[in-house]
Amino acid sequence: VTSYERAITLQPARATLRYGAARAYLQVGRFDAADESARRALERQPVYPEALALLGDIALQRGRLPEAEQQYRAALQQNPSLAVAHIGLGRVAAAGGNWSIAAGHFLNAIQSDPQSADALLWLGEARVRTDDAAGAIDAYQKAIQARGNFPEAYFGLAQAQFGIGRIEDALRNVNRALEQRAEYAEALLLLGKIYEQQGYSIRALDTYRRSIDINPRLAESHYRRALLLIRADRLDEARDDLEIATRLEPNFAEAHYWLGRIHFTQRNFQAAANRFREAVNRRNGNYPEARYYQGRAEEQLGDVNAAIRSFETVANQSDDVLWASEARAALARLSDR
User: What is d(CA 210, CA 230) in angstroms, rounded to the nearest whole number?
Assistant: First the structure.
């Protein structure tokens, strides 16, 4: 940033310097300065598709999706083969949850630039999200071929392999990601999950700790560590992790559920019932295990009518045979009172 600012004082009319400064400002999160500098570049050079695409990147990082899409399309009007603008449109679609549409944009970027490692990386992510593991693995491998030092691609490849049970391949590639980027919280989270799969609970626990130390805002690392702490009967520590996970991701239904289970075990039945309700609500009512335990907590609180409603909901509406059977048993028990 400082180098660009000094260069601009010497050559204020050079659009490329304004564009470079805008990119630097964006990298350090100075969105207003980045936006202003990119617009100054366009004032000096109106046909500048890269600057328009950069305005799209700035808007995207600010969460302004319609504005980002508008800027990317303006860039493509000036240069229909600009891969970064196609990638930008894909990221806009992905941010809206439209991963199939996003994949099409990433393919357009690759058609414009077959060696675009970033486009291949994003295509891999889109294929993971659309349950195309083989396609994701192919995209990630091509991204690594295009840019050898690419920890994000090794991580994506490992995730795709882990998802289809290729544990040894996943372990090898997540370790490659960590060799290239040691402070990589998401890769450590995946490594912890691999260790769990292999039965190395202590190793997994330490790996989740390292992930949390690097990025305390990664809710799944807290959640995964909490489950291991529950198995070790370290309930107070597990409760703390689950509280953090639900604050970071309020819609994390499983974290609410396990927090309820801890409260239930510790005989804090009102808190347990509240968490089970949260879990059920976050799944739009479709969480039979949580609704069953909600009934158990309501029963302990003496609210038998509420407990019956919960058990009847699970018994009559659930496709889960196990929890439907448990709910019918609970109703039979209550009817015998």
Answer: 19
Interhelix angle 288-300/304-317, nearest 10 degrees = 160
Collapse the DSSP code of 272 into the 3-class scheme (helix H, G, I; strand E, B; otherwise coil) and give the result. helix
Give 146-205 pLDDT, tens digit per residue: 998 999 999 999 999 999 999 999 999 999 999 999 999 999 999 999 999 999 999 999
The residue assigned the tokens 């300065």 is 33
Q: Take residue 48 and report the two structure tokens written for it.
A: 């500048």
Q: In a 10 Å sphere around its CB, with 0-12 CB exposed, 13-18 middle and 19+ buried, how is residue 93 labelled?
A: buried
Helices (H), the chain: 2-10, 15-27, 31-44, 49-61, 65-78, 83-95, 99-112, 117-129, 133-146, 151-163, 167-180, 185-198, 201-214, 219-231, 235-248, 253-265, 269-282, 288-300, 304-317, 321-335
What local confidence, expressed as pLDDT, does residue 172 receive? Answer: 98
CA distances from 204 to 15, 142, 147, 249 (A): 51, 30, 30, 22
For 287-303, what is each residue's pLDDT tens digit? Answer: 999 999 999 999 999 99
Rama region for 11: left / alpha / beta (φ>0; ψ in -120 to 50; rest): beta
Please report how many Cα atoms fall inside a 13 Å half-sphere around the Cα of residue 105, on the Cβ side: 25
Asked whether 83 and 113 are in contact (CB, 8 A), the reply is yes
pLDDT in tens, 96-137: 999 999 999 999 999 999 999 999 999 999 999 999 999 999
Q: What is the rounded CA–CA span in Å between residue 18 and residue 317?
A: 61
The share of the chain scoring above pLDDT 70, in percent, equals 99
Q: Which residues contact 333 (CB under 8 A, 6 or more apart)?
A: none
Quick check: 337 pLDDT over 80?
Answer: no
Cα–Cα nearest to 257, from 221, 231, 281, 222: 281
Question: What's the angle, vertex CA 131, arms to CA 125 and CA 134, rounded to 5?
Answer: 75
Q: What is the pTM of this model?
A: 0.90
